[in-house]
Amino acid sequence: DYTLPLTLLPGNYNPGQTTDVPATQYYILRDYGNGTIRPALLQLGIKDNKVVGTIATSTGDLRFLTGERVVDEGGYTLMGFDGRFINNVEFVTIGDSVFGNVWSGKTGYYRFKGIADDNATLEDPEEMSKLREDYTHIEWHLPGLDGDTIHFDSRTITKPTILAIQGSWCPNCMDEGRVLDMYYREFDGAIDVFGLSYEYSGTLEKATAAVQKMERDLGTSFPMVIATFDPKQDRNAVLPLEQIRSYPTSIMLDHQGNVVKIHTGFYGPSTREYEAYVKETREELETLVAESNG
Questions:
Q1: What kind of architecture, by CATH, is found in domain 25-116?
Q2: How high is the pLDDT of residue 80?
Q3: Which of helix, strand or coil describes residue 280?
Q4: Does the domain formed by 139-292 have CATH 3.40.30.10?
Q5: In whole angstroms, what is the distance from residue 211 CA to residue 75 CA?
Q6: Comma-separated ranges of CATH 2.40.128.120 domains in the chain
Q7: Which listed residue, of 195, 216, 246, 257, carries a Cα 20 to 30 Å from 172's Cα?
């Protein structure tokens, strides 16, 4: 936990009534000031005379941001709490261009610039993570939340299965967890879902307590296990991936244990990609379930 100092000064703030935005999506480049430049999408809309939106990266998003157009200053300000950090986004638009700054948590900061582009996309999330060359199957023995060890072997499964790489500290994992639980309930025994939690707590007991709280908060019903609980543990040793590029990441298998796809990151309900992803994944699961039923 931490606190941030707050200073209030009189000013000419005038939010007015915001009824539109110059563009609904900008392709932006995030400059962290150390030579690191990364692409992202600034997505905007209007709801109840408020500016709403998010910044979507190649692996997730800042979740829901809300704010206004600051009339007297010619720009926009949006804020939101993603479950881990307070995010503050301020930007101005000049023609089709956008220039802004993002403050995240206690120390996170980057500036950005970009151009309006409603068709812009980022790296394909289903091409970002790869299986290791020596991959033959997926197998693990990991502690469940009740203390019992859960054994998984992809060679013995009989139904479509999703393995969700997650963490109790990960805001986008919360959004994905709700969606996966929705599928788990909808398909009612026809699919399996396992949440593999990678924790930083330092002990198995603390990690288990953190994931149990996440489970209660989300109201999920699919089983979760502790993949790692200490930063010193090798996080790439549990699953046969070249590396874990993002939390969350989900691995979808068919009823014969074959990896159908690996989806890196997650675009939550604050993004324009969310609804299409939910629909497409449901359709993929329906196809896999039909195949498993012969």
A1: Beta Barrel (2.40)
A2: 94
A3: helix
A4: yes
A5: 40
A6: 25-116
A7: 257
